[in-house]
Specification:
Mean pLDDT: 80
Low-confidence stretches: 1-9, 132-142
Shape: elongated
Order of helices and strands: HHHHHH
Strand content: under 5%
Radius of gyration: 15 Å
Largest sheet: none
Number of strands: 0
Number of helices: 6
Distance between the termini: 45 Å
Helix content: 55-70%
Amino acid sequence: MFDVTVAPAQKALDAEPAREPRAYEALVREIGEDGASEVRDVFWSETCVRLQLFRTLSPLQHHARIAREAHSLKSAAGTFGYVRLAALALRLEKTTEGLGEAEFRVLLDRMDAAYAAARAQEPQSATCANVARKPDRAKSAVLLRFGIFRDG
């Protein structure tokens, strides 16, 4: 019965596009190509770190932190139009407290796949290993505004 009730929701999330290109175009109109590109680079880096962090946490012991991190990821992914990743982050945010370890790991695998799918649609695709970097302080105000980078 569990598989029957979860399967339609999983199929719906998997059907979400990896990226909505108009979201990035709107950001470019607002802050310019250079600013949008810099903020997106930080998004990739911060998301990679966040996805790795999730793997070190347990929903039974760290559900509040997981929910906060998922909320931040949902917002940032939505800013850039990464619809599937944002939807999965929302699911994690809303269900963390009730997830068992196995369900949590499956959801993280799906989030990793959504991240990879979004990256693959970008002109200069990269992996977590070569995108991780901390932004310089001059860009912090823009990054903070879009909820992608937390100061400190």
